[in-house]
Structures are given as C-alpha cells and as structure tokens.
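Run log, item B.
One chain of 182 residues. Sequence copied directly from the ordering sheet:
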Amino acid sequence: MKKLLFSALALVMALTLVACGSSNFETPNNTGQAEQSPNGSSQGETNGETNGNVPQTPSDGSQVQFPENFAEGVLYTTVSRGNMYGEIYTSQEAIEAVQSGQPVPRGTVITYVINNDGELTKYFVMEKRGGSANGGWEYQAFNPDKSVRIEEDLNRCISCHMSQEEDDYMYRLEQMLSAELS
C-alpha cells in the first residue's frame, strides 16, 4: 500500500513540475521588467508560435492600455475591505454576454478603481486578449495619474486569478450575472 501511495505521489509531483515548467508566465527581475532570453525576447514570448492552435501572448501587461472611458461602462460591483473601497467597471456588452450564458468576449476590459482612506491609490485593469494562459486575460496596474505602475508584480495577478478558472479567471462573476442594466 505504501509503495502504491508513494508512486502516486511521485506521479503527481512529476506532472506538477512538467506543468509548471511549461507555463507561459514571465518572471520579473528586480527592475519589474521581464527577464530577457538570449535571443532578446521576453520569457513566455513565443514570437508567433502556437500552443495547440491557440496563439500565445506575453503576460507582461504591455498590451493593456489605460481605458480612458471605463466610467462610461457599467459599475457592476463594489468591494470594501477595511479602509479600502473599490469599484469595478466593465462594458454593457460583456455583462449581456455573461448574463446570456456566453463566455466573456475577447476585448472585454474590466477596471478596478481602488481608493484607500477615501483617496484614489491605483487602478487595476484586466483585458481579455486571447491565448491559453489564464483564460487569455492580460493585466496591468496604473497609478492615479494613469501612468503604468511599474513596481506592481503582475505575476501576482496571474497566480491569484488562476484559482478562479471555473469563473473564467474572474472574481465577482456572480455580481456580473446579477447586474442590472439600463
């Protein structure tokens, strides 16, 4: 029995190492920038290669731009934790798709506006782009002046959202499902 249990544990560990070793996530260096490979591309960048038939994209947030018109979308939920208050916005089209049982469409942008002690401190933005890593979501953090928050570790976003695979890698999907649209 012990041999069988040990063999099963070894198999699980081997599969975990294989899966983690082939992930498409970048590892930031101490400057917050992606490590460069010898050919000059970022780790995780595939220069047009595909995994299966799904194009891969870098997970460094470089494709995510600040959504200047986010407040014209739908404020579908708020979050309060201690002295932190946040508002989460997305488009009416995204909410309509989710409410009709469709997947979140590519191109959807979700903006999380974060205030601490009543003062705007940062924005977190996620955009559904494509690719297979993390459901195709790309992440970026912005300062109150809407400049890129370079000190933010975007791999933290990826690892946290991985636990939400059943909800298309999103937190607050249930609030999107119940959001009232005008």
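Observations after the first pass:
- The radius of gyration is 19 Å.
- Confidence is low (pLDDT under 50) at residues 5-58.
Flagged for discussion on Thursday.
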